[in-house]
Specification:
The protein is α+β, with helices and mostly antiparallel strands and 204 residues long. It has one domain: Beta Barrel (Sortase, Chain: A). The chain has three helices and eight strands, in the order αββαββββββα. A hairpin with a 4-residue loop joins strand 1 and strand 2. The relative contact order is 0.12.
């Protein structure tokens, strides 16, 4: 009888833990989805000229760009900053990198299990479209896909042309979050007059 009670208690405990884990995972995805709705509204206010339009009153971040990847049905609002709080709600723009759509290398990071999960499906030649307030829309073409060790890797930066680097943790199916590996997608702006020059510059 005692053994039976212990078995029932163990099964009940495992069930509770399992439900908690499922609920926690579902909450992460639900929060990310809801945040994108609020961010879309903040983005619309940004396009109307509002500076640092916060998606909710206590937010410490705001939209700086819209990122679309047509081949994969991706449409995301990029936030200012890369803190843990920011990345919980959307991809973040590294403040020390180039401004969206401007000459130089813009770096955007996101979580591998939510907003940047699609990077696993991205291929060379895919188009990425970036829209920033008050600037022309810039189209980027994926040039390179690689895994790097964040402890030693140095991201190569461009100065004369617009480049975009998307980065997330790796591997995509890792059970434990964190780790030193990063998946890096490097792209260059596609322009009529400087495409060949940009590609040549990227190879140097």
């Amino acid at each position: 009888m005692k053994h039976s009670k212990l078995l029932v208690a163990a099964v009940a405990l495992l069930a509770v833990v399992g439900l908690w884990e499922l609920g926690h995972g579902a909450w992460i995805h639900a929060k990310a989805w809801l945040a994108q709705l609020l961010l879309q509204r903040a983005w619309e206010r940004t396009l109307r000229g509002e500076a640092d339009a916060k998606p909710w009153p206590w937010a410490d971040t705001w939209p700086v760009a819209r990122l679309r990847v047509p081949a994969h049905g991706v449409d995301l609002i990029v936030l200012s900053g890369v803190s843990g709080r920011t990345l919980a709600f959307g991809p973040g723009h590294a403040p020390d990198s180039a401004l969206p759509g401007m000459p130089g290398t813009e770096i955007v990071t996101g979580h591998r299990d939510t907003h940047f999960r699609f990077l696993e499906r991205v291929r060379r030649g895919d188009e990425i479209v970036v829209e920033a307030p008050g600037r022309p829309i810039v189209r980027f073409r994926v040039q390179e896909l690689k895994v790097v060790d964040s402890r030693y890797a140095v991201i190569r930066t461009e100065r004369r042309v617009a480049a975009l680097v998307l980065m997330t943790c790796y591997p995509f199916d890792a059970i434990v979050p964190g780790g030193p590996l990063r998946y890096v997608v490097t792209t260059l702006a596609v322009t009529d007059g400087s495409t060949d020059e940009a590609r040549a510059s990227a190879r140097r």
